[in-house]
Amino acid sequence: MCGIVGFTGKHQAAPILLDGLSRLEYRGYDSAGIAIRDGEKETEVIKAKGRLKILAEKTDHGASVPGTCGIGHTRWATHGEPSTANAHPHRSDDGNVTAVHNGIIENYQELKEKLLRKGYVFHSSTDTEVAVKLVDYYYKKYEGTPVDAINHAMVRIRGSYALALMFKDYPEEIFAARKDSPMILGTENGESYIASDVPAILKYTRNVYYIGNMEMARVKKGEITFYNLDGEEIEKQSRVIEWDAEAAEKAGYEHFMMKEIHEQPKAVEDTLNSVLQDGSLNLEEMGFTEEIINNISCIYIVACGSAWHVGMTAQYVIEDMAGIPVRVEVASEFRYRKPLLDKNGLVIIISQSGETADSLAALREAKEKGVRTLAVVNVVGSSIAREADHVFYTLAGPEISVATTKAYSTQLMASYILAIQFAFAKKHITEEQYKDYIQELETIPGKIKRILEDKERLQWFAAKQVNARDVFFIGRGIDYAVSLEGSLKMKEISYIHSEAYPAGELKHGTISLIENGTLVIGVLTQPELFEKTVSNMVECKSRGAYLMGLTGFGNYNIEDTVDFTVYIPGTDPHFTASLAVVPLQLLGYYVSVARGLDVDKPRNLAKSVTVE
Ligand code: F6R
Predict the structure, then answer these.
(1) Which residue, 405, 426, 452, sits at the end of a domain?
(2) Which of 147, 153, 326, 350 has the most CB atoms in a 10 Å sphere around its CB?
(3) Which residues form the domain of 525?
């Protein structure tokens, strides 16, 4: 949700900011802007509605705005429509304070009224302009430093923010503040960088600092000082980011999504290898001893979107394999429903970004209730990773496409690993079963590769679905969980209405939507449920549906029922989601491409949802 960058150093700032923003554009893309300061001269602000390339053209790719210090922003609208006036940076009328912001200021109306009474005038409908003017107000009122002004504003602001600010009296410097919105800072060779996310600055530095909640930073060329809310200096250690810059490039693929689909075998393998030692799994490094595992009475999995779909699969796998009761919840519901949590339970938060606002709030809710928490997170050092008691890092590397693929697959792998290890510790499976399951996990990357080798068939099929109005995905058990993800992949990037249903539930209402030619995709990877789902597909066919079946090699009799079949390699039924999801990712991708849509940046979406 909105991307921010900042730079102060020896080089020209504008091209660096535009480059950084291009790597953050997945966070929001309805408008963009930069503010550049050339020595003591006035800060110049340039903004444009629409994609970043319009801003790049407007500034001759940065060449027309000289200066070695600046801040930039790519916007995902919350307060106020996408427009040049609402685009960031915003500044106080006398140019004293200029800022970019990611997050939501909940009490902006109340603060705006206060500032209006003080004579401030507003030119946009954004909450950010209020924050800028509030900082300006305190700066002038107390005649202190920028840090004093910012911390006075921070105490008054409710909501979330990552702010990067420039002050007229402090040329070549940027100030930053953060609460619940992501922000990292880095230094290299006498230059300094600020960004919402790692890919924006990876090309320039891998030494980053994580600024904590309610902390501030003063950023000079090659030097960053951190402050707490009382304005006292605090020490921070830099961390080295292992991701390399190439991982955040398209590497010859037309879209990040396709590249990331192809990175799945490696991502899944890396995630497994991170805990695999001599044929056994070792979770001790993340703090899970046998004693801790044995004390877990139940599991609550909390997440949003695709990560929640992973939770749905994990529920089936963990309950069946480890015999531990599992409840799965959407984070935005969990946080407000006053959940009754068992003190010996384990709350697992699944999140690629580690910054999803609702998931973070759910984590805090669980911690407040004294329940042990585990984060399954991809982004190292993200808020959820830092605040959870235990962290399982998925090794997907940077995921740029808004629609998740490889992060989802690594989260599935992490869930299997937890299920197997918990099952073994609780003596729910024998040592032989334990070894067999692990060996089966090791075959999954190769099997994903095989599915990818046959992608052209799906491309051909997808081309026929370009004009579909509705698509239904049905399945039972784990196949239902896969259907949820297949359906989301389809609708979020192709804008074709789709729904996922437990196969047996369709006839309780939704089947009335089936018309001649409506595409129904049945997922049938669970041997025990195969015939049941086939019957449900037949029910749809009798109402005119056009059927696609997704099942394991060998189930060839499905062809008697369906119009088009996709086969996947066999695996243990617990792990089929890892294979079945791949053709559905490809299907969504190819339909989106065939419809001429922007696959990596679907409308209205943002990669990291850091607002409620
Ligand atoms: C869909 C998608 C989203 C995310 C969701 C959670 O393709 O990517 O549904 O899964 O927004 O995001 P994270 O995992 O970052 O918490």
Answers:
(1) 452
(2) 350
(3) 456-594
**Going along 146-232, which residue ranges are E strands?**
159-167, 174-179, 184-188, 191-195, 207-210, 215-220, 223-227
Query: Do 117 and 198 share a domain, yes or no?
Result: yes
**540 included as an active-site residue:** no
User: Do 383 and 280 share a structural domain?
Assistant: yes
SS3 at position 237? coil
Report pLDDT for 559: 94
Residue whose CB lies within 8 A of the most ligand 1 atoms, among 26, 353, 382, 392, for a mutation test = 353
- Asked if 607 is an active-site residue, the reply is yes
Q: What is the pLDDT of residues 29-86, one digit of tens each?
A: 789 999 999 999 999 999 999 889 999 999 999 999 999 999 999 988 777 788 898 9
CB 37 within 8 A of CB 69: yes
* Residue to probe by mutation, ligand 1, list 404, 592, 599, most atoms within 8 Å of CB: 404
Q: What is the pLDDT of residue 247?
A: 67
Same-domain check for residues 294 and 172: no
Bridge partners, residue 121, by sequence: none
Do 399 and 466 fall into the same domain? no
Contact 49, 31 (CB under 8 A): yes
Residue 602 lies in a domain: no
What is the position in ligand 1's atom list of the atom closest to the CA of 403? 7
- Token readout for 525 is 């990877």
Q: What is the pLDDT of residue 539?
A: 95
**The CATH number of the domain where 555 resides is what?**
3.40.50.10490
Query: What is the distance in A from the centroid of ligand 1 to the CA of 534?
Result: 31
Residue 601 lies in a domain: no
| Distance (Å, whole) CA 176 – CA 150 | 9
* Paired sense of beta strands 346-351 and 372-377, if any: parallel
- The tokens describing 347, both together, are 């709350």
Q: What is the CATH number of the domain that holds 223?
A: 3.60.20.10
Q: Which residues line ligand 1 (CB under 6 A)?
A: 304-307, 351-353, 356, 359, 403-404, 488, 492, 608-609
- Which has more confidence, 241 or 276? 276
Task: Report the distance separating Cα 508 and Cα 374, nearest Å.
Answer: 37
The reply to whether 238 and 311 lie within a common domain is no
Q: Are 96 and 143 in contact (CB under 8 A)?
A: no
Q: What is the whole-number distance in angstroms between the Cα of residue 499 and the centre of ligand 1?
A: 17
- The rounded Å distance from CA 75 to ligand 1 centre is 18
Task: Please tell me the residue having the least CA distance from ligand 1 atom 9.
Answer: 305
The total of structural domains in the chain comes to: 3
pTM of the full predicted structure?
A: 0.79
Cis status of the peptide bond prior to 89, with omega within 30 of 0: yes
Residue at which a domain ends, from 206, 222, 248 = 248
* Whether residues 359 and 409 fall in one domain: yes
DSSP 46: E
**Domain-located, residue 604:** no
pLDDT, tens digit, 9 for 90 and up, residues 176-201: 999 988 899 999 999 999 999 888 99
Does 440 score more than 70 pLDDT? Answer: yes
**E strand residue ranges, 64-190:** 69-75, 90-91, 97-105, 159-167, 174-179, 184-188
Average pLDDT, the chain: 94
The two structure tokens encoding residue 19 = 């480059």
Q: How far is the CA of 608 from the centre of ligand 1 (A)?
A: 7
Q: How confident is the model at residue 97 (pLDDT cuts 50, 70, 90)?
A: very high
| Residue 442: both structure tokens together | 């090791």
**Radius of gyration from C-alpha coordinates of the chain:** 25
- Has residue 329 been placed in a domain? yes
Do both 313 and 390 map to the same domain? yes
